[in-house]
Amino acid sequence: MSDGNIRVLVADDHGAIRAGLMMILGNAEGIEVVGEAADGAIAVRQAKALKPDVVLMDVRMPGVDGIAATRELTAEGLCEVLVLTTFDLDEYVHAALRAGAAGFLLKSVEASRLIEAVKLVAAGEGVLAPQVTRKLIAAFAAGTREPSAVPAGLEDLTEREREVLACLGGGLSNAQIGTRLHIGETTVKTHVSRVLTKLGLRSRVQAAILAQENGVVLEG
Fold first, then answer.
1. 190 with 123, same domain?
2. Which stretches make up the Response regulatory domain (predicted)?
3. Which of 27, 54, 74, 146 has the largest CB neighbor count within 10 A?
4. Which domain holds residue 204?
């Protein structure tokens, strides 16, 4: 982050929406909008050139869509991606999160919540719109999604790392994980990083989904 500011790139194919998002974020303390893009291909090129901390990514865009662009950006570790869309359909949620997005918000989100989400994602946290969270939890509770194959890395986790994974599955922030496990936040970040590496995941939100799918849940 330059000068302590979070560098943000806004990608949306609708000019008016893009301008509005840029105005909201551009007026927020601690955030600097460094660029914009009207489709996924431009977003990837701009991200490589401008090196933002966070890309605010629309899903439906002409040419390369937001899901494909997110997958490319996260695979190369270029930045964090916060998906923002009008749609809250399951296929978009799961596709975005499996592509490595750090968060998913609806375009109806309030300005203050959007600013907060950008700051959380830049700090390494995961963000899901309440509506999306409820849908994911309901889907898992109802058993409507087929569980994925248990990743080999799951068996390689230490007891502490498994506890951290369970906390991620419960939607806890780093600070909340630290409080629950009685460890420092820096140590939490280290454990989260190791969990993601061992499981071959790109984001803590992917880890949360994996934890839910494989029954790694908080006890008590």
1. no
2. 7-122
3. 54
4. 159-214
